[in-house]
Write a structure and sequence with these properties.
The chain has helices at about 15-30, 40-50, 60-75, 90-95, 110-130, 215-230, 260-265, 350-365; strands at about 5-10, 30-35, 55, 80-85, 100-105, 135-145, 145-155, 160-165, 175-180, 190-200, 205-210, 270-280, 290-295, 300-305, 315-320, 325-335, 340-345. It has about 375 residues and is of the alpha+beta class.
Length: about 375
């Protein structure tokens, strides 16, 4: 049985008590929550991925209205349910006029939040059902933690997700990287997303988590053209490719593949994380800010728009409240617009100790939702 794709929300609020109450209420309803207390970061997230609901604290009303207007003007979130978190001092009519669907009044209790979110969930589910999906038949390969160039046959595509068929079972909620050219197009779409469901026939549902602007334009143009084109009989689904070397449809390497052989790489213990870091190329003092999204004793995967060629020697600096660590490595795989897999260079016991400290810190990080 396929598991229904989860609804998602972005909660933009810096008040810890409000965040705690709303997070609990949303999770009780099976709605995933991403919290963000910084409006600048929230604006970037609205451009980056689709949310079924956006909850905005309107304490700073002009900034909140600006964020709501942005959500309504983005292709990714123009149909999201927008909920304003307001008090008696807010101009509720103005907030409604700029695109909010619902209001939550402070102080927020679990009961009040649950009542309002039940109505909002109905709108979210309705929008999810009517979001058009277009069938397509394209072969590609995907990369995810511990695997590279796994054959896949794309099944259907929408503005916020894709389904494909694979003989391989993917880990739940893992991050997947792939690229493909849609039918009747020569442009590549590069995507990363999260596994949201799988079924017994090998179909996998992916929700997009990061789509570079160039790929977003190609995707939107193709969807628009095919939504308005006359319908044609849908041919049989393609077989999952088992060979060949179509470089335009393959990723050059997998996610953070870490040592000697594929078998060895899979044996290394991997830990998902989200650690801010700076990367320095050899003989350069200019940092590239990035995020470590998984780590093992042999290497890590760095999420960054600016990628370096395979073989580039790097120094990675991670700063947390408790420690400051430097580890060295080289680029083993690169996914332009997404990130790089890095193999650690561990020449001394101190180098190995630093990596273990990073892994221990990643284990203590709270799980991202």
């Amino acid at each position: 049985m396929a598991v229904n794709m989860a609804l998602t929300s972005l909660l933009v609020c810096s008040d810890a008590q409000t965040v705690q109450v709303l997070r609990a209420s949303l999770q009780d309803m099976g709605i995933g929550v991403e919290s963000c207390g910084d409006l600048r970061m929230a604006r970037a997230r609205l451009e980056d991925r689709h949310f079924d609901a956006v909850l905005v604290d309107c304490q700073d009303e002009p900034a909140a209205i600006e964020l709501i207007v942005q959500a309504r003007n983005t292709s990714t979130n123009k149909t999201a349910a927008v909920i304003g978190i307001v008090s008696g001092q807010n101009d509720v009519r103005a907030i409604f006029a700029k695109g909010a669907n619902f209001m939550l009044y402070k102080p927020i209790s679990r009961e009040r939040a649950a009542h309002s979110m039940r109505a909002a969930r109905g709108l979210m589910q309705s929008e999810r059902r009517i979001r058009p999906r277009i069938a397509l038949q394209t072969n590609t390969s995907v990369a995810y933690a511990g695997e590279e160039n796994v054959p896949a046959a794309l099944v259907d595509l929408s503005e916020d997700g894709i389904a494909f068929r694979s003989d391989s079972k993917l880990p739940p909620y893992c991050k997947v990287y792939f690229q493909f050219s849609p039918p009747q197009s020569t442009s590549l779409i590069r995507l990363s997303g999260e596994v949201m469901w799988q079924d017994s026939s090998g179909r996998v549902g992916i929700r997009f988590s990061q789509v570079p602007q160039t790929s977003r334009r190609v995707l939107n143009d193709w969807l628009q053209a095919n939504l308005t084109a006359p319908s044609e009989p849908v041919p049989a689904e393609p077989q999952i490719p088992t060979g060949g070397d179509d470089l335009s449809l393959r990723l050059s390497a997998g996610l953070g593949l870490l040592s000697v052989s594929s078998g060895d790489r899979r044996n290394l213990s991997r830990r998902t994380c989200r650690l801010g870091a700076e990367v320095f190329r050899s003989n350069s003092s200019v940092p590239t800010r990035c995020t470590l999204i998984d780590i093992s004793p042999g290497g890590c995967y760095i999420e960054t728009i600016e990628t370096f060629p395979t073989g580039t020697v790097l120094e990675i600096v991670v700063r947390t409240a408790d420690l400051r660590l430097r580890v060295h490595g080289k680029v083993l795989s690169t996914h332009p617009g997404f990130g790089m897999g890095v193999e650690f260079t561990l020449r001394t016991d101190d180098h190995r100790k630093q990596v273990q400290q990073l892994i221990s810190h990643a284990k203590s990080e709270p799980k991202l939702i």
